[in-house]
Write a structure and sequence with these properties.
Length: 119
Amino acid sequence: MKNKLLFKCLVTVIILVILNGCNAKQDETLHTPARTEKNQVLIQGYKFQPDILTIQKGDTVTWTNQDSVKHNATNNSFDTGLLSKGQSAQQTFNETGTFDYFCTPHPYMKGKIIVKEEL
Ligand SMILES: [Cu+2]
């Protein structure tokens, strides 16, 4: 009788651990990449890559220049400053909306950040 109870407890614990593990994994795929690796814009070949980036309110975007020439990302509300090859700059977006930006020396270089309340 005592053994049976122990076995039931053990099974319950195992099931809880498995369920928890699944939840944790799901959470990770849903949220973590969006906040870390994904909010990166490469400046390469006179282009912003990606040119349209969707983020969540409060997220920080990092621009990294990979061209030999200097580029920036700017509009009325922010300016990364001119970035040399290998340099990065960050901007945090605390308001929802669509933010078009461009590069001052090369105004035909255009990008867009779409900030949503929830992704
Ligand atoms: Cu440029």
